[in-house]
Design brief:
This protein is of the alpha+beta class and 98 residues long. The chain is built from three helices and four strands. The chain has a single domain, classed as Alpha-Beta Plaits (2-Layer Sandwich), CATH 3.30.70.1060.
Length: 98
C-alpha cells in the first residue's frame, strides 16, 4: 500500500540542544534504513521549514502507523496521511481502446 505522508516537525525552542541533536541523528539513521528497505521511497524537504513530504510503500496501514510511531521526532510532528491507490494512466494505448 502506498501512503502520502506530510510531516511537519515542531521542536520546542526550550529543549536541550544535545537532546534534539541526538533525536535528529536517530531520525536520520532510521529514515535511511527505511529508504534502503524500500519502505520510505521518496522524501522531499519543504524549503524553509522543518517539514517533508514522503511516500511510504508498506504492507498495511498498521505497518505505517508502527513506523511513524517509532520515529524519534514523532512526538513533535504534525502528520497528515493520505492513502494512495495505484491506477492506470488516464491515457490509454490504442490496443486497450479496441
Amino acid at each position: 500500500m502506498l501512503f502520502h505522508v506530510h510531516m511537519t516537525v515542531n521542536i520546542p525552542l526550550d529543549l536541550d540542544k544535545d537532546y534534539v541533536d541526538d533525536l535528529k541523528a536517530k531520525e536520520k539513521a532510521l529514515s535511511q534504513d527505511l529508504q534502503r528497505q524500500g519502505k520510505w521511497t521518496h522524501i522531499w524537504r519543504i524549503a524553509g521549514k522543518y517539514a517533508n513530504i514522503s511516500i511510504f510503500n508498506v504492507a498495511s496501514a498498521g505497518e505505517l502507523h508502527d513506523i511513524l510511531m517509532s520515529l524519534p521526532l514523532y512526538p513533535f510532528m504534525d502528520v497528515e496521511v493520505t492513502a494512495l491507490c495505484q491506477h492506470y494512466s488516464s491515457v490509454k494505448n490504442e490496443e486497450e481502446a479496441h
